[in-house]
Amino acid sequence: MFFRASLIISLPLVLMTAQPARAEAVDMALVLAVDVSESVDGDEYQLQHEGIARAFESPDVLEVIKGGAHAAIDVLVLEWSDRDKQAVTVDWTLIRDEASAQRFAERVRASKRSSNGLTAIGDAMLASAEAFQRLPDQAARRVIDISGDGMANVGPRPSEVRDSLVGQGIVINGLAILASEPWLDTYYNNDVVGGTGAFLLQVQDFQSFATAVKQKLLAEIAAWSPADNRLKAAQIQ
C-alpha cells in the first residue's frame, strides 16, 4: 500500500518537472545556410566562417537587434553541399545582448567544416525550413539566408522548393558569390530568392563576404525593404 501511494503522490511532481520552458517572443528566426560544396576551398570557407562571427560582434548589428519590438532574435547556422550533406553546426541561439552575440560568434569559430560535395540548393532550403520545426521561441518572422558560389547541380529544383516555402510564410534571401559563375545573381534572383521583402546581395569574391553578410544581417533583422536607402548597396565590390 505504501509503494502504491508513493507513486500516486510523486506522479504530479514528475509531470511538473517535465514541462518545457516557456517560449520567448523574438523578432526573427534566421537560418544562415552556408555553401560548403567542393567549389569552396579551405581559405574561402574560412572567410565565410569568420565573416559570420565578425558580423555578430558588430555593434551595428547588435543595435539593430535591440531596436526590434522584442529586442531579440534566434539564429542557427546550417552548412550544406550534397543531397545528404546538410549539417547544423551552430544550433538555435537566442541573441539579445553583447554577451549572447559574443557566445554565438565563439560557437561559429569553434565549429568545423561539415562536408564538401555537389551543390544541392533545394535540399539546403528544405533542411533550413525543417529547422524551424524545432525553434524554441515564437518568431514574428522566419528567414532563410542562402549564400553560395554556384548553381544547383543535384536535387530538387530550388524554384519549386522556394515557392513551397514562401507559401508557408518563410522568406528566402540570397548572397551570391560571383567568383566562379558571374551570372549567379540572375540565377539566385529567378530560382532561389522569394517571399515578402526578400532580396539578394551579390559579391565579386569571398574576400567581400564579411562586409556583405554584415550588410545583409542589418537589412534582415530590421526588415528593411531592398529599395530602402539604409541598405547601402545591392552590390558590394
List keywords for this structure.
single chain; 237 residues; alpha/beta; Rossmann fold; 7-stranded mixed β-sheet; 8 helices; disordered N terminus; disordered C terminus
What is the rounded distance between the termini?
78 Å
Strand content: 15-25%
CATH fold node name: Rossmann fold
Number of helices: 8
Give the overall pLDDT as a whole number. 86
Helix content class: 40-55%
Task: State the strand order across the main sheet.
Answer: 4-3-2-6-7-8-9
* Rg over C-alpha atoms, rounded to the nearest angstrom: 20 Å
**Overall strand count:** 9
CATH architecture label name? 3-Layer(aba) Sandwich
Description:
The strands form two sheets. A seven-stranded mixed β-sheet has the order 4-3-2-6-7-8-9, sandwiched between helices. Strands 1-5 form a two-stranded parallel sheet. The chain has eight helices and nine strands. Helix 8 links the parallel strand 8 (200-203) and strand 9. With 237 residues, the chain is an alpha/beta fold. It has helices at 2-17, 42-57, 59-66, 98-110, 121-131, 158-167, 184-191, 209-222; strands at 25-26, 28-35, 73-80, 86-95, 138-139, 142-148, 171-177, 200-203, 235-236. It has one domain (25-236): Rossmann fold (3-Layer(aba) Sandwich), CATH 3.40.50. 43% of the residues are buried. The model is unreliable at 1-20 and 225-237 (pLDDT under 50). The longest helix is centred in the N-terminal third of the chain and has 16 residues, at 2-17.
